[in-house]
Amino acid sequence: MAAGRKSSPSRKTKVASKRNAWIWIGSGLGFSWLAILEPTGRDIVLGFLGWGGLFLGPFMALTGLLRMRMSSQRQATAWRNRFIIATPLISILASAPTLGPDGASTGGGLLGDFLPMLLSSIIGDVSFWLCSALALFAVYWVLGRPLRSREVLGDLGFKEILDDAFGDIDGSAGLDESRDAEGAEPRTIEPTPRSKVKEKRKDRGEERNIDTPESNGPENEESQAAPVEHPRSRENRALREPRSTPGSISNEEASYLPLADPEPDLPLTLEMFGELESEQPREQVTSGTLTQLTDIIVDTVKALEKIELVPLAEPIVGMSNICFEFEPKEHSKSLTAIASLTKDLSVATNREQVRVNISSSVRIELSLYTEEREFAPILPLLQEVADVDLEAAPQYLIGRDQERAPYQLDAGSTLHMLVGGSTGGGKSVLLHSIIWGLVFRYPPSKVRLILYDHKMEEFAHYRSLPHLWQPVITNEGGFNRMLENAGAELKRRMEAKVADPNATFTWLIIIMDEFRGITNDEFIEFISMARSFQIRVILGTQRANKESIHTTVKNNLGTNIALKVRDFRESRLIIGEPDAKDLLMDGDCLVDSPRGLDRVQVGFVDKHKLMELREEIS
């Protein structure tokens, strides 16, 4: 008897999401019948909730419909929150127009009349009109303003009806493109007849000087012997669209096609920046300051906890902190109480951040002032790690550890990666460091990149990068097309692996500057399968929460990097420890990888160097 087929996590998620959506719709329709059609229920709803209660049922039904139609559950949740906020606002809005001679309104109910009646004791009945005017503006801001974009009309299906009746309501983009941009099911591309393929291949070879497989037989034979690309991909790559025009990012869906292999197949060189200046060592903290801080720590602990500490070694000044190590003079006393003295030590030493680690000894880290810190400029860092093994998995260049040694992570063992940090923490700078460490050391035949940048700012400098697998993605429609292309590439690799278990491929690395709000079930399933076929995903986010970081995504992450975050909850979600909330701004991070938890100063890529790179590759 054949075993039953096991459901995938994404399938279970879809079923649960659809079930919840129907619960919302059913509850909304039931409440609408009670509040509108049933006289007794209507009187109760109007008495307590006012006119806002009449909208509560339709709002619940719309929430369920949006949860069913929207590809991003975060967007559906945002609309649910808007509906919740709008309910009391509508009641307050109805309070003044329905105000009776007895000083109470028939449309506000207890919910809508509470605030105006509270203010009426101060400014009189004009408070009702004042609150209604403010509520009108608030309703527009919460519901009217988002509706003006008409995005929700497309998700509800109204956009198709309006388009059929009045033409294209957007005035520019076609209906299919607008649906793709909202995350609907991507369109399939019909296969091109073999005769037309040959004609296109010939035209592209003449116009763009791209060699075709027919005209480059010996070269193909050599490439088949190379371990970095499976032979089946060479024919497909020759049919791809040409590289986009330098200096422009197109948001047209058709432009998000995989790019042709670049020629020559070489990494970028540092020679484009001219003669590089070497880093000049400097004294960060004087020996007198270190002695003074040591005495302050010993005196503070002795005064507050009656524990006398003895230094075990000289303080170590790192890239972003000073590390002190002590042992108790009397080993019979417990050291755990010292861990609660972080704020006291911060005040006593006048240092912004203090970390205390208790083991067999007491390890205390004090943050450096900005003028005392050392940063990690990317060019000297690249010079130190220029030699790489092209037969091994590529190395992510993160920055320098506290002992100033280059800090790298192996793409093979790190699997997928999460990078989280608040504004100013250095998340985007870290992603630049990873990109530069790849493109300046590995040829495109070894590493190809997919870059997602919804702000159209951070990755705009890489529009003409030869390592791009497809043009820089700037919107959700492009993300869906990328997912379609990458899914096809994953399928090709899976089939190639079945045919040849020893097949190897070009490393395909997807870097997303902000993924929060665009993930869907297909993307989650792609992440869980891609890691076995030399495809890696690096996810960046400014706000880490359980809603944005799906459990399946979290389980497939081999490495997590936390920069400065808002609170200990975000820190625990990223690295499992609360310490990231105490990090410094500007690139101070904690790396949780298979090798342990390390504190690192990320490689610094300044904007002038980004502009120089942009001009050179354009």
How would you sum up this structure in a few lines?
The chain has about 625 residues and is an alpha/beta fold.
Structural commentary:
The protein is α/β, with parallel strands linked by helices and 618 residues long. The chain folds into three domains: 9-148, no CATH class; 287-367, 2-Layer Sandwich (Threonyl-tRNA Synthetase, Chain A, domain 2), CATH 3.30.980; 375-617, P-loop containing nucleotide triphosphate hydrolases (Rossmann fold, 3-Layer(aba) Sandwich). The chain contains 22 helices and 15 strands. The protein has helices at residues 9-37, 39-48, 51-69, 73-95, 109-123, 126-148, 151-156, 158-166, 175-181, 194-207, 217-225, 232-238, 287-305, 342-349, 378-384, 411-414, 427-439, 476-499, 521-530, 551-555, 568-575, 607-617; strands at residues 309-311, 316-317, 321-328, 354-358, 362-367, 376-377, 395-401, 406-410, 416-420, 447-452, 507-512, 535-541, 557-562, 588-593, 596-604. The strands form two sheets. Strands 6, 7, 8, 9, 10, 11, 12, 13, 14 and 15 form a ten-stranded mixed sheet that branches. Strands 1, 2, 3, 4 and 5 form a five-stranded antiparallel sheet that branches. Strand 11 (507-512), helix 19 (521-530) and strand 12 (535-541) form a beta-alpha-beta unit. Helix 3 packs antiparallel against helix 4 (73-95) and helix 4 (73-95) crosses helix 5 (109-123). The radius of gyration is 30 Å and the shape is globular. The relative contact order is 0.09.
